[in-house]
Every structure is written in C-alpha cells, then in structure tokens.
Amino acid sequence: MNPETKGSKIYHALISQPDPYIRSVAREVMKCLYFTPEDSIPMLKRLDYIVRKADGVSWKGGGNGFVNITYTTGHIERSFENNDTACVDFETRGVLLHELTHAFQLEPQGIGPYGGPNKAVWEMVEGTADAVRVACGGFHGEKDRPKGGSYHDGYRYIGYFFNWVRETKDADFIRKMNRSCLEVVPWSWNGAVTYALGKGYTIDSLWDEYMRAMGDK
Questions:
Q1: pLDDT (tens digit, 9 = 90+) per residue, 55-72?
Q2: What distance in Å separates the CA atoms of residue 21 and residue 93, rounded to the nearest whole number?
Q3: Is the pTM of this model over 0.90?
C-alpha cells in the first residue's frame, strides 16, 4: 500500500522478495520461543504484511490464525535519514522479529486479557517480543539497553533482562517463560520464574541481581 511514498520505495528496493525474507525471520523467532516443532505453537493460517503510510512504527493485528502486521513508511523514512540502507535493513528486521513474536508466542492465562487491569499480561507479551529481538541480535547491544527501571516497564526492560537470565542462568529461559503461559494458570511472574528456574528464585530477586550485575544499582 502507498507505493508512492518514499518509505515504500526504500522498503521494496531493499527487500525485493518479502515472502522468503519474512519466513526466514519467522524461523528465527520460533527457534527462540520453542524447543521443537512439536511444541504447542499457535497455528498461523495467513499472514498479511502491510507497508503503508500511518503514524507510529509497527503493530500486529488479527488473531485466530489470521494475522496482519503493519510497518509504517514514516518509520522507514526516519531510519533512512542518513541515506543508510544498512540502518533500514537492521531496523526492519528488528521490528519484524518483535511483531512475528506476537504472531507465535503464547500468552498468560487466567489473569485477564491484554490491555486488562492486570498489567502483567502486557508486560509479558511485549517483554517477550523484545527478548526475542535482543536474542536474535535485533538491537544494538548495550547501546539500546534501557538503564534502571523495572520489569513492570515491559518492552526492552524485560527484553534485555530475559536475555541476561538466558546468558547467566539457563539458555532455555525464554522458551521456558513462553511455555509457562500454558503450564502456570493463573499465570504470575513468580509462578513463571519458579517454573523456568526452579524454587529459590523470585522475579524481584532476579531483577535485583540483574540491576547489580549491569551496574545500574
């Protein structure tokens, strides 16, 4: 859509074959989220990837196997402000890693919907999407890591936190946290951490250790 925009032209010049490109990134995402193809992976029957003029960066819509992802031409143009196609390529892949995670991830059960009063659903969903992006090299390392804050801040705060746990405690941590959405009902942060790492760990103690390890506390 909006093929007349500069952003659309940049995107299509960079990614001439979007179908194999998206499939390749999707495989990276599923390797981060799941142990084997036999795991309980949500069925994706159709994916519509839309590049169009709109506010914001990108978002995922739809459900029940029919998913659409919108990527805005304005964000593409901002990424290209220094005429750097490598920057556009890096950002486009990073955004796609995040949005495709939403297409394939499991979501907390028994505590209400995304956007409901229990913020933990939003924290886990968006945090996991950025954790996959971090794990797959979709951010610029320490440069993009937010300092301080709390896991309640979601997105990159949880994304970088999950990856620190993955690197220091358990290489399967992201997969196990994703799986906790099926196994821990009603879902909770401490229940999920115990499921992933065993007794003796709490979300707050892990976060405190992470903050100290990063020099943020």
A1: 999 999 999 999 999 999
A2: 9
A3: yes
